[in-house]
Structures are given as structure tokens and as C-alpha cells.
Amino acid sequence: MLLQEIKPFVRYAVKQKINDINDFVNYDYRFFYCVNGEGIFTVNDKRFPFKRDTFIMWKVGGVYSYEPSDSLATEVISGNFDYTNNHASLFTPVPPDIKANFNPNKLISESVYFEDASCLNDTVYIPKASNLGETVEKLQTEYNKKVKYQNLKCSIILQELILQVVTFIENDAFVAEDNLVVK
Question: Is the pTM of this model over 0.85?
Fold first, then answer.
């Protein structure tokens, strides 16, 4: 698939507080953006420091956990989506399952391979992503309005977010020691 061919469907986008998350598996593509707090995110056995303005996104079927640094909850904006809109009829958010209960036959999104945006083929981790914050917030706000054409508006905002992620990573200003795309 080429990046210009995406027609994303936002199934869920919410601001929430999270504490411990232990070995959950997602049925959609997933992202988290840290608003406040800090801890360690683990996605598919890779550990990532997670603090204010950190953005992390991974593929359908990923196993993830979160350990906060202290007893306070971490405030995040999180979202579930697919790139193709092929499963837009399943508009109700599908919560992740604990690893022991995960059923791969229930996957909502197909795994997409990008020919021209290879950074999206693996976990994306950007620890200094304040430039994405406004778009992530706009996506969450629009999702929660529940108005006419909401799905289309959210799709356009998510396209913008994904393009921002790709251009940020591919830009020469992207410094490897500060921001990583984990493969």
C-alpha cells in the first residue's frame, strides 16, 4: 500500500488516565500520546520510556504493557484505527484483550505493508513529539463530538496525523538518539 492510498477509520479516540496495563493485545492499530505523567511502555517485548509529548503507535495484534513511574495515573490520548476503512461497519470500539484471551480470528484490521513509508511497518516511537500534540488533541475532540460527518472529519485528521508522523521521521531534523523508529 502507498501512503496516499490510506482511508483510515477512527474507531476510538479518547483522553483518559491509565495505570498499570499488563499484556494486552489490540485488535486494531493503536496509538498513545502522553499528555502528563511518565512510565515505561512495552510493545512486542521492546521497552520505551513514555513521558509528556511522547507518541507511540503500533500494528494490529501487538502485545503491550504500561508501567507508571509512580502511583499516579498517566494522562494519555489514545486511539484505535484501521488504515483501509474496510471494517468501518464495525464502528463500536473493540477493547483489547489480555494476552491469554486474545483471539487472532477477531482481528478487525488487516496488517498493512507500506511500500513508500516503511517507518509505519513497525512500532513508531517518538519521545519528543510535541509537534503532534495539537493534531492528536483535535482528533480526540472531533471523535467525541458525535456529530454529522464525524467519521469523515476524524479520517481526515488521522490522515494529517499519519502524514505528520512520516514527514517528521523522514525529515533530516529527526535526530536518531532523541527519536526512534523501532524495527
Answer: yes
